Amino acid sequence: MLNDVQSRRIGKYRKLANKNLFCRYIATVLLVIHVICIKFFSYNKRRFKVLGELCLIAVVFLMNTSLTPPTFAATSSEMPVLEAYTEETDIYEQADLEGMVEDTFDIVKNEEEIANLDDLIEKSKDSVQGDSVVIPDSGDRENAENESEDRIAFDKTDWKLLLVNKQHTIPEDYEFTLGTIKGSMRCDERIIEPLTQMFAAAKEDGINLVVCSPYRDLERQEFLFERKVKSYQHSGMSYMDAYKKASVTVTLPGASEHQIGLAVDIISDTYTSLNEGFADTDAGKWLAEHSWEYGFILRYPLGKEEITGIQYEPWHFRYVGTDAAEVITNQNITLEEFVENL
Predict the structure, then answer these.
(1) 183 Ramachandran zone, left/alpha/beta (phi>0; psi -120 to 50)
(2) pTM of the full predicted structure?
(3) Inter-residue contact 225 to 247 (CB < 8 Å)
(4) Catalytic: 98?
(5) Do residues 324 and 334 lie in contact, with contact meaning Cβ atoms separated by under 8 Å?
(6) What are phi and psi of 279, to 5 degrees?
């Protein structure tokens, strides 16, 4: 179900599409009249030549008012998506899907754009004693792994399992409390503790993880998506092509997990770019193997692009709770597939 903002935006797109289409129809008719007047009648009646020239001028005018290809309002099966952070400047630009991320974009521009374990510890005092972080006992994790998956009862109305994507926009009545990670960086306060535990465990294994681009509001998401579309247009694409291409690298406003505070982009202190190369780093490999133990899943895995509608993003992790994360990881499925089977 679309919210009011999306409905207004889609309504605007449809009006623009109708206007563009109308202009093209009229221009086509006038062009035909121009050809008829010039080719068949202008030789014996001057007024037909003038009429034909006026039609041509009108055609040029109408086409100039409709240079942008008919804008389309994305339906539930065509709605797009983006990622970035901070008010003044993007932390990063998503990579080109066809180029499979040949471009590398540095995302760490200043200390205010990232948060490491020390920052998380400051915000998780309830689970921290001094410099130590409460980490689930390994024996407890082993017992959880041995528990039969079919005995776990999952509820698709559970906040941890809220499915947000192009087909499932954020419910209008969805509410949550934001907790501060560092400065203006925030996320759902309920995931700060498991996020801290995961970072602490990684550090014990010699991996220094870093959070970037957590929660983003609707206004920020709108700006980022529209800017992505414009960047593709500037490279020579039509609006429609730019819109479609942006939809696999940037989340449509109202359909981004970052807006519900349950998704975080994670890098490391030694690899500060959001691209596929992160998967080959020690940090990327550690997260792929251990993130489920703390309730996080790799949200947009490789080979699942047709299901998620988003390109492979080895840096984008979503909190779903440890039980669901174990099932999703062990079965190598997506959140879409998991929720669909509940």
Answers:
(1) left
(2) 0.63
(3) no
(4) no
(5) no
(6) -60, -25
CB atoms near residue 143 (< 10 Å): 10
Angle of helix 192-204 relative to helix 282-290, nearest 10 degrees? 120
- Helix ranges (DSSP H) in the chain: 4-36, 46-64, 117-122, 138-146, 192-204, 218-234, 239-246, 282-290, 305-308, 322-330, 335-340
Structure tokens at 73: 């309002």
Angle CA(252)–CA(320)–CA(166) in degrees, nearest 5? 20
Q: Which residue has the higher pLDDT, 106 or 252?
A: 252
How many angstroms separate the CA atoms of 81 and 91, rounded?
A: 16
The tokens describing 335, both together, are 């959140």
Do 249 and 82 touch, CB atoms closer than 8 A?
A: yes
Residue-level pLDDT at 65 = 53
Query: Do 169 and 255 contact (CB within 8 A), yes or no?
Result: yes
Dihedral class, residue 301 (left if φ above 0, else alpha if ψ from -120 to 50, else beta): beta
Cβ atoms of residues 274 and 83 within 8 Å: yes
Question: How far is CA 303 from each of CA 247, 300, 333, 334, rounded to the nearest angstrom?
Answer: 17, 9, 10, 11
**20-69 confidence digits (pLDDT tens):** 667 777 777 877 777 777 766 655 566 666 776 777 777 677 666 544 33
Exactly one of 113, 193, 313, 326 is catalytic; name it: 313
Tell me the C-alpha distance between 161 and 144, whole Å. Answer: 19
Q: Which helix or strand (DSSP H or E) is residue 313 part of?
A: strand 313-319
One-letter amino acid of 6: Q
Non-local CB neighbours of 191 within 8 Å, separated by 6+ positions = 261, 262, 264, 295, 319
In tens, the pLDDT along 142-165 reads 454 455 445 688 998 999 999 999
The encoded tokens of residue 127 equal 């689970």
Q: How do residues 168-210 score in pLDDT, each as one tens digit?
A: 999 999 999 999 998 889 999 999 999 999 999 999 999 999 9
